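sorry for the late reply, my laptop died twice this morning and i had to redo everyting from scratch. anyway the thing you sent over, i finally got around to it. pasting the sequence first so we're on the same page, its 122 residues, then the predicted structure underneath. double check i copied it right bc i was rushing
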Amino acid sequence: MLTRKVNKGSKLGERVDLEINIVQHEISLIVLLEIVKLLGFGLVRKRSDKDAYRLRVTSLKNINKFIKLLDKTTFLGAKALDYVDFKKGLELINNKKHLTPKGLVSVKEISNNMNSKRTKYT
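ok and here's the structure:
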């Protein structure tokens, strides 16, 4: 997930956040716990609004590690497109380009077309 939040203390007035979320029904909690054990990072919490658990990775260092592992996987459909877009956002953040006006516009364009906001599927 690539998000922007208002931050009046920031030069550009917005903060960019990047995180990885994997949500599973509570019956699959063991899967999320095993992923955390395998990775050596991540946090699993119960979602208050559903019978589900979420694995969350928010550290840029750990997101980069996780992406290196995911690069060995083939995604299909909209998830493949979201993954490509997520990596574009990650690259902007890794290169500190999200701290420039042009980079922030790029982040907005990427995040406004990911996941449930996606309208282009090619």
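The first strand starts at residue 2 and ends at 6.
thats about all i looked at so far, will dig more tmrw
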